[in-house]
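User: Predict the complex.
Assistant: Input components as received:
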Amino acid sequence: MVVTRFAPSPNGSLHLGHAYSAITAHDLAKERGGTFQLRIEDIDGVRSLPEKADEFREDLEWLGLEWVEMPAQSTRLETYEAFARNLLSRGYLYPCTCTRKDIMAMKPRMGPEGAIYPGTCKGRNLDPEKPAALRLDVDRAMAELPELFWEDEVNGTQIADPRPFGDVVLVRKDAPASYHLASTLDDASDGVTLVTRGQDLYAMTHIHRVLQELLGLPVPMWHHHPILLGEDGEKLAKRRNSPSLADRRRAGEDGRVLADRLRRGEFGAGITLASA
Ligand code: GLU
């Protein structure tokens, strides 16, 4: 049975782009007689606003969606810690005390998601007083794993290669997991079979596929849907000043009508991976 999910971070209000993402995941599950899940990713981001989670639920209801809610990330910290300890004890993680400023001062190469960490802390004796993050030793992981693939309903079969991102952070200084670790573990424990999200997160899957292999997790399929763009070419989800779903709801707009307009593609233009 197909299980999809919408996994918003409660750092700000939802916009049309989020509505499109939630509707896509919802409809993909419903068309196939499956389940659509909501998961609040409240450790993904600098600051979580607990009241936003209620706002999100009201928004989804207003759009006419039905979902099963899974536990929020903040209730799963022990699981993240256990899996991180496992990776650390097997030598796939190393501590890193560098700050963002330190890294930028090293004039790092830029990858698809910004600065590539030059591996400065790898194998170094670190000041135990300084807060440390844990980074994935990506070369070590790739040297030991067989060639990995992932199946994307939109983009076809992909070879997983996270090396262009460098040694990404899996355990943050201020949280027991980064987005990569938490989201990958949650999708596995929630039984998600079709990870549905925007094309903007497509490249992240290279990292997640490798984590699944290192952690012995089940491997789902992915559906990376096109992103809604405004007429100015900017992502609707991030666009400043565009009314949030909550604003539209409170102004009395009919959410179900809005959802159907989104389904009909009346808003913005979808971008494909080639032009992303
Ligand atoms: N929490 C992430 C976000 O709000 C989404 C993660 C995902 O769908 O994998 O951007």
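Residues 7-9, 41, 44, 183, 197, 201 surround glutamic acid (CB under 6 Å).
Let me know if you want any component modeled separately.
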